[in-house]
Amino acid sequence: AFKKSKNLQDVFSRLITIVSQGYFQPNTGGDSIPEAEGEMSDLVGDEPLFKALYNMFLDSGGVFRLSFGPKCFIVVSDPLAVRHILKDNPNNFDKGVLAEILKPIMGKGLIPADLETWKVRRKAVIPGFHKAYLDCMVDLFARCTERTVEKMEGVCEQENRTLDMETEFLNVALDIIGLGIFNYDFGSVNKESPVIKSVYGVLKEAEHRSTTYIPYWNLPLADVFVPRQREFKKDIGIINDVLDELILVAQQTQQEEDMEALQNRDYKNVKDPSLLRFLVDMRGEDSTAKQLRDDLMTMLIAGHETTGAVLTWALHCLVQNPDEMALVMEEIDRVLGDRRPTFEDIKEMKRVRMVIAESLRLYPQPPILIRRALGDDTLPGGIGGDPDGYSIGKGTDLFISVWNLHRSPQIWKDADEFRPSRFDEAIDPIGPWGGYDGKNSGLYPNESAYNFAYLPFGGGPRKCLGDQFALMEAVIALAMMLRRFEFSTKAGFEPGMKTGATIHTANGLFMDISRRELEGTEDVQGVKQMVAK
Ligand code: HEM
User: Fold this and answer.
1) Please, how many CA atoms are within 13 Å of residue 350, restricted to the half-sphere of its CB?
2) What are the binding positions for heme in this chain (predicted)?
3) Nearest residue CA, atom 3 of ligand 1?
4) pLDDT at 11
5) Whole-number CA gyration radius for the chain
6) Other C-beta atoms lying within 10 Å of the C-beta of residue 92
7) Whose CA is nearest to atom 28 of ligand 1?
8) 464 labeled binding residue
């Protein structure tokens, strides 16, 4: 039986090698780059792709090449080489394979957009994430989290007090992104609907595509004959209809008073504070433009799963590390108590912010960034690499492994350990990398402070534009839940890991929850008073 399965594996790997020829670019120079031992088929096992690449990184260094047949791609895990691609020479790279995968879903939205489209759209969208908008979002994050807290209160009344927290985090993140970006209440914490089903269907398809080396969806009539493609076509149609309708309504319901309030950044008097309202009212976006819909769709997908995943792994890490859990709870009780959180509280809850930052180091979302060189270039050799660097040709496909960067034993002490306080410690500069510059002053330790060894939200001009939004959302959701509940897992439970666009658990994040016995609060029972406040 073993021999038979081995033969099957060989046939499968050969098939993959042949078909993927059409997908990645031809070998385009880079002959001096160290070649990793391995085959494309090594990457198609039970193990997530980024884990297979980690072992190769340990053997082959911060810049290595993986060839299959006449094609290859370069895996970059070195801070200097990454800084070159993302920040020093970003105009020489586009999203390559990723853009091809995401085009049917996000069109020319910000993530897959080519450089020309991206320049115009980034300029149009970024002013929407201004301070007054983010301040207003803090309240929204809290209100949406209260729904989950309320649901958890109900679960605490039941005999079976086990809940899949990964699902709950994804639901709260979906409700927040819907309301914050286009004022649509998915209400997914408490119900299921065809639209929610379609959002998850499209997400699943996006993930399936990013982990499948055979672009079968490009085959003629695939959306007629392949059942999952038929399903995908239906799902994307449902979401597009909702978005088109929301854009139209936003334009038809423009109100003078709202325009004035928006103009003055007076969000207390704005009925609909969503980003869409800002784009339509303040930037005069054309409601018929497919581009606006593509950008909304991009933000729906980019801002939902990522935040859900960060919360999932943060809770997992805390439950595995009771000392860290105790420290973080002490901070939440001291700073927040039962108040609805404010922006000032987020600033005060430094330990919660560091927990989110450390979770993003150990479980970066996404674990791999994808680029394709638009012209010939030279990548820095980086730590332990060739000091003259490595030349690459036009068309080279690059995988930036954020997972490898964040777990590099050359950079991080006890790289696999969950230790949020590491962001308060100085790191010794190693070799040409240059290390931590000590300017860790914002809401989270960013890529500049760590000279591109730490990339929680990417870096350079294509850095995440929802970074503050996401960080604040995660801090509030986590703090409000930890204030009310204790979490534990059954002995021996392992969430496991699965990769798509983000890192998921393989088995869910099943937690037993119970109400905390809170000293100094009359409302030990729970949420009612908190909601009233
Ligand atoms: C881009 C991470 C939340 C919107 C990115 C990139 C990363 C990232 C790493 C860079 C991708 C690349 O260079 O290839 C995250 C994480 C989040 C998060 C970890 C949550 C914890 C959000 C939210 C939004 C958002 C809430 C929207 C409100 C975007 C957009 C881009 C992007 C539009 C493309 C930016 C551009 O190309 O100009 N994100 N993101 N993200 N993210 Fe996020």
Assistant:
1) 9
2) 464
3) 303
4) 46
5) 23
6) 18
7) 466
8) yes
